[in-house]
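chain below, 575 aa
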Amino acid sequence: MLTSLQIRNYALIEELSVPLSSGLVIITGETGAGKSIIIDALGLVLGERASSEAVRTGADKAIVEAVFDVTGNARVTELLQTNELDTAEELIVRREVSARGQSRCFINDSPVTLALLKQTGELLVDLHGQHEHQSLLRVDTHCGMVDDFGGLDGMVREYRESFQRLKVIAAEVVELRDREQQLREKRDFCLFQAQEIDAVAPQAGEEERLETDLRILENSEKLHTATADLHTALYEGDRSAHDLLVVARNQLHTLAAIDPQFADAARECASAAAIVNELAKFIQGYNARVEFAPDRLEELRDRLGRIAFLKKKYGGSIEAVLAHRDAIGRDLELADNFDGVLQKMQKDLDAARAECALRAERLSLKRHEVAKKIDKAIVQELAKLGIANARFTTHVDQTAIESGRPAKAALPDDAVLRGKSAVRLNSRGYDDVEFYISTNAGEEEKPLTKVASGGEISRIMLALKSILARTDRLPVLIFDEIDVGVSGRIAQAVGASMKSLAGFHQVIAITHLPQIAGFADTHIVVTKKEQNGRASTSLRRLTLDEQVREVARLMSGAEVTEAGLAGARELMGLR
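prediction:
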């Protein structure tokens, strides 16, 4: 829900703070006071077109900031996360327009594009009046409204899984067909490279082992001499380390017999002599195994040279060479068995297409059923709202691609057969849903998007929202000019319908009619005053007593009488 709206230097508004609450919020005021300016400002922060003319004269820029409570709004959270924006229970959107016409947009204090601001706004607010922000006037929303009313989300989700699978397989088939000629042309080259790599047959980790062996062979003479000298120093020499340790061990044993404090030292010395002995044996064994093999040395150098050549040619490492070998191996296998692979993928494509067609057909049948219920309910609701001769039809059609029954292979990837025609698939099936209406007797039905009257389209939207109330996902509904052309009993019905709708949404409405204003949960009055030769707009949230007086003013004019106040209380259901 919209919790507050801050407006600064916008048109007649110097600075304004609009406190809002849940339920039905009514805005009233004299003609020209600036009620619609508030709605225009809200449209601006929701992504509508900006103009430097909206900036208050003398100001550098206009600023509009709206704060929403988005607790539990999964669609807004997903959109913000997708665009790497901070998420919280409170969402702050801000729009700044400079006197030079430059515009900046922010969500939670992070700069964003106008497109993202508009996309976010479309998940939060439905604005009805002389604005472009009406979801009802966008044909692409009609199918979703029907699905919401019919509770078809589960079927739509299942279809989309099939549709996504179809798109993936179709893309793979297209890629495979595009690669066919390329694969056939480069087959010989791939075969040459595979044979070149296979002739060496490098192994992962082999290079390190070869370099170790090469280093040992290249230093065999040094290793032989050094180990011989070391063995002499440790064991064979006249005063070798082993002999000296044995002498020291014996002396320590003698001392330990006199003083036990030498016992530990004697044992440590004996241990050191044993360690030197084992070390000498190891060195002697190593010395005996030192190999002088010129042929093996050449073999290692040759092997490392061939590996270095492959590394330089195919990626810089043995891992890269092996990866390249795997890739060209797959290309060769595909080139040699292209027809078989394509045939299998085509079977997968046909199966995915058949599943899409089945689920799209089930959705279409359900939509036709739901459409009849919507049409009947809308006509009944419109009659209550003063449009007595309305006819409303939800058209559920398909986009045919061609006549006749084409071969399956001739079908575009995003099409399925329906009877004798191929029809285009979309993200919700193969149905194109659009609302048609006639509001006057004798007139033919026309697309709802071509209805011109702001008040009429608002009442039509009110009727539609009333029957979709429990399933509609937009938390905030704003109605401007909804009272155009209505009065008396019809106005009372419009107010009652809005009050009922406010049980499921936050509803904000500008009105001149007391029959509508009397249903307000929150009542805000807008006034215009002149100060220092300049006009400015201000507003005030009314107390209950003030609300009664405002409704009475709407009923009887500027002079409010006791009779008028009594009538206002009766209209508002107060005693």
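The radius of gyration is 42 Å. The chain has a mean pLDDT of 86.
thats it, cya
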